[in-house]
Write a structure and sequence with these properties.
single chain, 4-stranded mixed beta sheet, 3 helices, 8 strands, 40% strand
C-alpha cells in the first residue's frame, strides 16, 4: 500500500526495487535508510541464507497499521518499508526502513520504533538454511 506519507510492501523483490520511486522531500532535512541484512552466522553456525515466508495480506495490513499509528503519533515524517520473502542469501538485505523527517534525531528514533514494532507484530517467519559442514 502506498500513500504520500508512507509505502509498505512485502514480496520477493530486492529492497533496491522497492525504494526505486523514493524521492527526497524538501521539507525533510534527514533521510535515513536502515537495512536489515542477513548475517553469516546464526546460533554460532555458518549459514547460506534465510528463507522468509509470510501471510502476505495480513503482513501488509499490519505494516500499514504500524505506519498509520506512528504517523498519528508523529505526523511530520514519511516512511517506506519493504520486507523480502523467499530465500535471501548472506550479505543481502531482507528489510528496508526508510524514514524522512525534518531533523535527524527524529529519523533515528522513528526507524528504531518502526523496527521494534515490525519485529513484534508483523507475521513474517524465517527458516535458516545452514551451510552443510
Amino acid at each position: 500500500m502506498a500513500t504520500e506519507e508512507f509505502s509498505v510492501s512485502i514480496s520477493e523483490a530486492p529492497v533496491e526495487e522497492a525504494e526505486a520511486g523514493w524521492k527526497l522531500h524538501p521539507a525533510n532535512g534527514a533521510d535515513l535508510r536502515f537495512l536489515g541484512v542477513v548475517r553469516e552466522t546464526e546460533n554460532g553456525r555458518r549459514i547460506a541464507g534465510i528463507d522468509y515466508s509470510s501471510y502476505g495480506p495480513m503482513a501488509e495490513r499490519e505494516l500499514t497499521a504500524i505506519c498509520r499509528a506512528l504517523r498519528e503519533e508523529r505526523p511530520a515524517h514519511r516512511v517506506l518499508i519493504h520486507h523480502r520473502t523467499g530465500f535471501v542469501p548472506v550479505g543481502v538485505a531482507s528489510l528496508l526502513i526508510r524514514v524522512g523527517t525534518p531533523h535527524s534525531a527524529e529519523a533515528f528514533d522513528l526507524a528504531r520504533e518502526y523496527l521494534k514494532r515490525i519485529k513484534a507484530t508483523v507475521p513474517v517467519w524465517k527458516t535458516i538454511r545452514y551451510e552443510i559442514p
